[in-house]
Design a protein that fits this description.
The chain is of the alpha/beta class. The protein is built from eleven helices and nine strands. The strands form two sheets. Strands 3-2-1-4-5-9-6 form a seven-stranded mixed beta sheet, sandwiched between helices. The chain has a two-stranded antiparallel sheet with strand order 7-8. The protein is globular.
Length: 247
């Protein structure tokens, strides 16, 4: 997966900026952490600034975009963290576990190096999303198998608390669901280039042309204009807080 992000991650600092509302939810879940390891850290979004942080990231391109003054970055894989047992107080993993080559091993590594874990992920059992349902059904086929269900996380991590993370209408972090109320954004190649799923979609042009056409002729608005009255939406993003109890 490092090779993928060395290719698509060149402009993550432009399109994947931390959203303050999601950051607040993550900070609350982390609590008064002493030492944090951020696994699959990318450019460092959502890392706490008030405690020592070590970032683990396999991609050179992502590490190069980390802001000055951030935590120390280590190039390594989530499945083989180069730290001793209980080296940290909390392990953080933000929209990354679906990229790990061995999810169960990576999750076990989180709990080996820290007694608590805070994971931002997506629930494949959640309801649909217009972009996927109407324009890119291939995305569902690609994403649902690679994201763990909440039951799977409970089996691996033990007792967990699952917290919904609604996506604000003006979300600053350009993940797949971020533009649910800004449909024109998905026509932007830069936006799509910062969303890993689009790199795996075999046929992009026909759905994009249809979306462009239906935005122009009003079809999208007739079907989804009611969304413009909403300020946030539950698209299945979840914070999973694990303490290792019951494992």
């Amino acid at each position: 997966m490092a090779e993928l992000y060395d290719e698509i991650g060149q402009h993550y600092d432009t399109y994947r900026r931390p959203d303050p509302r999601i950051a607040a939810a993550i900070a609350e879940a982390l609590g008064p952490a002493g030492r944090v390891v951020n696994v699959g850290a990318g450019t460092g979004s959502y890392e706490p600034r008030d405690c020592p942080v070590v970032a683990v990231e396999p991609s050179h391109a992502m590490i190069r975009q980390r802001p000055p003054g951030g935590g120390r970055a280590v190039q390594a894989s989530a499945t083989a963290l180069p730290f001793c047992d209980a080296a940290f107080d909390v392990a953080l993993a933000v929209l990354t576990i679906h990229h790990w080559p061995d999810r169960a091993r990576g999750l076990a590594e989180l709990m080996r190096v820290a007694p608590r874990a805070v994971i931002l992920t997506w629930d494949p059992d959640s309801a649909g999303f217009w972009l996927v349902d109407d324009y890119f059904p291939e995305i569902a086929a690609l994403d649902r198998p690679i994201f763990p269900t909440m039951d799977e996380l409970r089996r691996i991590l033990g007792r967990v608390e699952v917290r919904p993370v609604p996506v604000p209408y003006d979300c600053a972090d350009g993940f797949l669901g971020a533009y649910w109320r800004r449909p024109h954004a998905y026509l932007d190649a830069g936006v799509r280039g910062a969303i890993s799923t689009f790199t795996k979609v075999a046929a992009l042009e026909a759905p994009l042309q249809r979306l462009r056409r239906e935005l122009e002729d009003g079809t999208w608005t007739r079907r989804y204009g009611h969304l413009m009255d909403r300020t946030e939406m539950d698209l299945g993003y979840r914070l999973v807080v694990a303490s290792g109890a019951g494992r």
